Predict the 3D structure of the following.
Amino acid sequence: MIAGIVKYTLKCLKCGKSYSEDHYICSCENKCDALLKTVYEQKSFTIDESYQGIWRYHQWLPIQKIDQRLVDQGSSFVTYKSIKLAKQLGLKNLLICLNAYPHCHTGSFKDLEAEVTFQRVMGTVDSGKPLVMSSDGNNAISFVHYSNVIRYPIFLFATEDARLRRIWSFSKSNPYTRLFPIEGDYFDAINLGNQFSHVEGYLSEGGFRNVARRDSVGTMMLDVTRLMGHLPDHYFQALGSGPGAIGAHEAAERLILDGRYGNKLPKIHGAQNYPYVPMYEAWKNHSRAIDERFQKESAKQLIDQTSAHVLTNRFPAYSLIGGIYDVLQATKGEMYSVTNEEIEKAQVLFEKLEGISIVPEAGVTIASLQQAISKETISPQDFILVNITGGGRKEIKRERMHIEPYKFLTKKLQINQKSLEEKIQHSKELIQESIQTYGNQVAVACSWGKDSMVLLHLARSINPDIPIFSVLTIHKPKETFEFVVKVIQQYNIKPHIFMVGDTIPEVLKKNNITVTLLPMEQYRIQVEKIKKETGNEIYYEDPDLCCKLLKVVPVRYAYTTLGLQAWFSGLRNTEGYTRKYIPEIEKISEHETKINPILTWTEEEIWKYIKNNKLLAHPWYKKKYDDGRRIRSLGCNPCTVPIFDHESERDGRWRKTLKKGGECGIHTRSSSERT
């Protein structure tokens, strides 16, 4: 995973058009009824043992980097050779890939799909745009969970029945999820989600067309091949939309091209829950097309009779090129129809023999394996990989909570319906109350951007001598240092300035601006280490670490040194997705309160206030670019670029990194408790 080297491309299986890894693309631009397939530059199967779980197979995952949060909090499966169940069924080589709690945090293999999807989108230029998706249960649970872990926004469409019965979260607050329940079935949710995803600024997650989903499940085929030294003969999985089986097949194709693990594709065995069996019926009739009776509104009557409800997609990945039909054809595969009674018996059998509960769709898989034995479509000595897609949910002791629906508001209400004059008055009242509460132990944090200029003016209108502190970095542009001098001189203020560095910037020294220098040693060590390992600068390779050492730690030092109990921030909730749900007053700890007086102000209102009050503004905001872009959020020199007006305000921050549009860390955790 070296920056600048092409790792993979996406290829349409119909027209052959290829797409770059730089964009989050799920469908061919030529509107081909075909899947895009990942084509990796690395052709040999490589295992990176420095990682655990699926990340050890990152060479064949459509990602650029691996976020440490996903390493620390990632889910994984357990692959093992069954003894008790295998003996009961009379099988010699039954390999079980168990996607269950606690290894999978939500008890489903959809955790893998969510992890890799979030990592994929964060490695593209589309990072930061909310993912729009639809789900009837497992996908929703996993994506909600990892949206909280990775702090990435999703717009989720689901049936009201799923919201009440099958969708849950470990968190009471899910600030990065907007859930839209509808009356209807899973396809209705998919249809509405597809329509919404075409709105500018949003991304369709892609469903079965998303290569991250398929390649993440493909790691199960890689894992069992790693353990056995060769490909299995069979692969069993219950099918709803179908990306899992397709992903396993695509991974097997890559292993065959490697040449070391056999030359025969594993036979794919799919199963569905009777009476809703569209793919089973089509395959039995040797047809690429699914019978319309499974796709009409009347099909809901069949869907309501199933117990494995998440398998009931009216338009699965069956007919399109590269879909289930082609996979079954290529492997001489089989399909099975499983009743509710068979599912229940299979669940009981698995839990009794393997010691863990499994979800209904995994019961479908075990029941189909039993049918295959009866029909002799497998032999007792064959190597059989069974994907247990979910389990251990009865063993989850953590509290699980419903996710409340998102309530539509008009754009005006979302922004805040108060006039600018009312907001100014409210901001001043909040500042006044805070000063009365904390006295000289509350200060203004100044970043010298447009929001800080407004906050500074408001606070000084209440108390002209209010304490001010600021953290500068060695990567600030020279215009920022010059602007600091200009503001200090014109406003006659004496801010406490802190900076990790060896020397005070010349323009500050020349104008007798006092700066507290903090040790540079730790930062220098990390810079040299990252440069040696990757050839890249720290702010590109690990911007979180760069921000922590140059901004977060100095803010903690400043806060403690100044003996503060509270501080004013110029944070606004219309700036970007990371700030939408921040409260006006944040009680961070016993000794720290953060107050956000201009939280509900819009970008336009900030500029109107600056103009009306003739405030100073950083010169970078006035830069003009031929294509219409402009600087809208001010940061360090290498991490600030101009953006278009239709983009989110902070999209120009850390643009070419996984941190795009995110946070330096000051506002995401307690500054006084940072280490």
In short: Residues 530 and 542 are 8 Å apart (CA to CA). The longest strand covers residues 383-391.
